[in-house]
Amino acid sequence: SGASLLALMGIRFEGLIPAIILPLVLTMVLFLGPLIQLAMDCPWGFLDGIKVAVDPWFWALCLSDMRWLRNQVVAPFTEELVFRACMLPMLVPCAGPSRAIFTCPLFFGVAHFHHVIELLRFRQGTISGIFLSAVFQFSYTAVFGAYTAFIFLRTGHLAGPVLCHSFCNYMGFPALSTALEHPHRLIVLSFYVLGVLLFLLLLFPMTDPHFYGWPTPICSLDSTQPGSLCS
């Protein structure tokens, strides 16, 4: 491939603006239910939320919070850099894009098993409970890893996966049990279903490689039969 190392790692200018906006919007569509639930339960009005979002003091407080920096900046950037930007360019030539998408997240999921060691070390729960928690965490981190790998391959950019990762860290896993007990649960659950349906409908159109500079550098490494993921 004639692409530079940085381009293969998703660090390039061509198609950068769509790569920043479209994958994040797509992820927000998937979280439509939790976002509506959050808006309904939030004591602030819409204008109050806008004022907070544009307040420099609010962002100064966030940037001074080590936990916020870890969850919203450091972890998303470093994990996507390692497991997507560094790992996928090595996997795609050997396995092809489709297999790489489902292989890469296995390493990503295993990398989160250190939480199990912490729980066992400090005896925060029963062994069976910790094991079930670990299986659940591995499952959803692997699924999320497959999604961001898909975004990386389709867009050829690191920015999209990092922003989606940061957003998902902020939102957390959807609180379905809370949604089922919500006073307006029919409305909330309807938006949950609508979000999933719209996400499935928009997944390929909003990640069309032609928006991001087709063919994307990462897909130029594919030595297997070209498939729909790269076109």
From TrEMBL:
It catalyses: Hydrolyzes the peptide bond -P2-(S-farnesyl or geranylgeranyl)C-P1'-P2'-P3'-COOH where P1' and P2' are amino acids with aliphatic sidechains and P3' is any C-terminal residue. It is found in: Endoplasmic reticulum membrane. One of its GO terms (cellular component) is endoplasmic reticulum membrane. It is a multi-pass membrane protein. Pfam families: Rce1-like. Residues 68-171 form the CAAX prenyl protease 2/Lysostaphin resistance protein A-like domain. GO terms for biological process: CAAX-box protein processing. The chain crosses the membrane at residues 15-36, 130-153, 186-204. InterPro entries: Rce1, Rce1/LyrA-like_dom. Keywords: Endoplasmic reticulum, Hydrolase, Membrane, Protease, Transmembrane, Transmembrane helix. Belongs to the peptidase U48 family. This is CAAX prenyl protease 2. It comes from Electrophorus voltai.
